[in-house]
Amino acid sequence: MIEINHVTKNYDQNKTAVSQLDLSVPDGKIIGFLGPNGAGKSTTIKMITGILPIDEGSITINGHNISENPIEAKRSFGYVPDHPDQFLRLKGLEYLHFIGDMYDVPKDVRQDKIDRITKTFGIYDVLNDTIQTYSHGMRQKIVITGVLLHDPDVWILDEPLTGLDPKSSYAVKEMMREHAAKGKTVFFSTHVLEVVEQLCDEVAIIQEGTLQFYGTMEAMREKYQSDETLEHIFLELTEYE
Questions:
Q1: InterPro entries from the entry (predicted)?
Q2: How far, in Å, CA of 105 to CA of 108, rounded?
Q3: Which of 7, 59, 196, 211 has the smallest count of CB within 10 Å of its CB?
Q4: Number of DSSP helices (H) and strands (E) in the chain, helices first
Q5: Which ranges constitute the DSSP H helices of 36-165?
Q6: Domains (range + CATH), the chain
């Protein structure tokens, strides 16, 4: 579970990226996090993961405050950034073993998962190449493999499907469904609204740093008295029409 309480982030005196955000992300559900460019999505995710400090409010992950107990909080989640450009000089296999060591994944369990997941993603044969030689999609796959390797309770994914081929995209969506079905948490941002409609239990929409809506698609249609697609409602809600 992720609890975001009255969170604010200011970049300077004239720019508030996130304002008094309250959001409770429950266990056992897939939550889609939506908003136009510059709405505060990535800033929010970076505060959840401890990359950016919180100016006001608090964020807890599985009961661990990300500001006060960052190590405990970070051990409980896996994070896939929108630009997976870290550890580029490591070989793919070196990166996965590094993640395994960081999270104390047993060697026998680790190797089985590495073999199985990388074969599913079609990157098994390039594990001995450096990550800097990978395409964006391949980098995305190696980072997702790292998250799956230590199997955290909470998945925080920033545009996880970008650059993935159809087979890998399908596999990730199935993994997200399976993770939520185990009573665990999936929180992800995306611009692909069709995926949100197909996959998510609930949707959170942010605009100019404030939460505009949080709930199910059925609740959204009822609130806005519309039978339109999520795309249509989203465009109306964010005043992009």
A1: AAA+_ATPase, ABC_transporter-like_ATP-bd, ABC_Transporter_VariousFunc, P-loop_NTPase
A2: 9
A3: 211
A4: 9, 10
A5: 41-48, 70-75, 92-102, 107-121, 136-150
A6: 1-76+153-166+181-241 (3.40.50.300), 86-151 (no CATH)
